[in-house]
Amino acid sequence: MPPAVPVIDLAPWFAGNTRDRAAVAAAVDDALRTSGFLLITGHGVPAGLSAQTRAVAREFFALPDSVKSRYAIAVGGRGWIPPGAEANGYAEGTPTPPDLKESYSLAAEKPTGNAAIDARWFRPNTWPAEVPRMRPVVTEYISWMHTLSDELMALCAVALGLQAGFFTPFLDHPTYGLNLNHYPPADPGRPPEPGQYRIGPHSDFGTVTVLDREPGLGGLQVYLPDGTWADAPYDPAALTVNIGDLLARWTGDRWRSTRHRVLPPHPDAPGEDLLSLIFFYEANHDAVVESLPPPLGRVSYPPVVAHEYLRDKLDAITVS
After folding, report:
1. Ramachandran angles phi, psi of 291, nearest 5°
2. Which 8-state DSSP code applies to residue 77?
3. 227-230 long-range CB contacts below 8 Å, 24 or more apart?
4. The pLDDT value given to residue 1
5. Do residues 262 and 198 touch, judged by C-beta distance below 8 A?
6. Which residues of the chain have pLDDT under 50?
7. Contact criterion met (CB below 8 Å) for 222 and 5
8. Contact, 258 vs 200, CB < 8 A?
């Protein structure tokens, strides 16, 4: 395990005294200043919920393409993002072949009353009629991820030496998304192109990302501070957490929005079939993100409006 990606038990944060909570916050600050990634245990998400969510996702992805295509969308929509529709490397200006994955994408849907904003960020989710269990199971999963992400943002505030509620005014009507990512086995007739990944190298765009993943030879890698790529550590009891560009900007680059990638199918495991649950948390669509001043912040970025920043990033990774 790369030593810069620690496992942090959140149980003392939820149940401990002030000293215990401070110790957890200090560990989070250290992790986000070094690798930008951590594993969390003691997170409180019900046991078995991830497995149920993965099971209904697999039901959908097992459907014929002719059925899945009824729910086909572009990046940023609600429904099936087919293979070839997304190239995450473009987000950092690196042209790559399309990512070797398919996704089912869901997101925040509570409207604001602004028609233009709601059409982009708060439209109703689409649920496949062929998998009736998906809606109740995934809705529960999203609810838990939203609750956990709010708690992580409170923890992040304390880790910065701020009041736990510092980010709360920016999170009372947030945008967020859940991607059910399917990384299928290798296609013998179409080997990966040079520089093609299941997900190309990129950093995430929002505040915190909460990932439930499966291990594999063609799995997640993290870009370490020494300039090397390392396989991400895996713990079946843990969730993987990293921060995105918005939170890095907010902290004035005190914390790292770390590059990562998902490798293509490995020649030694061509039949490997993986499915990840990825919750991308952001902020209110109209939140103005301004870098915290020194001594917390190290770089002063120009202020950005959250939804404008995210729109540009999502548009960048869309394969036209």
Report:
1. -60, 135
2. S
3. 229/261, 230/2
4. 42
5. yes
6. 1-3
7. yes
8. no
| Joined tokens for residue 81 | 């993002």
Residue with tokens 């902290």: 251
In terms of C-beta density within 10 A (0-12 exposed, 13-18 middle, 19 or more buried), how is residue 15 classed? Answer: exposed
Each residue of 131-177: pLDDT tens digit? Answer: 999 999 999 999 999 999 999 999 999 999 999 999 999 999 999 99
Cis status, amide bond into 295, omega within 30 of 0: yes
Number of C-beta neighbours around residue 268 at 10 A: 8
Q: How far apart are CA 281 and CA 59, in angstroms?
A: 25
Q: How far is CA 115 from CA 119, 125, 288, in A?
A: 6, 16, 20
pLDDT for the residue 2: 44
SS3 state at 169: helix
Instruction: Identify the bridge partners of residue 42 per DSSP, sorted by sequence position.
Output: none
pLDDT of 95 = 82
Tell me whether strands 37-41 and 79-81 are parallel, antiparallel or unpaired: unpaired
Q: By C-alpha distance, which of 235, 241, 220 is closest to 159? A: 241
Q: What radius of gyration do the chain's Cα atoms show? A: 19
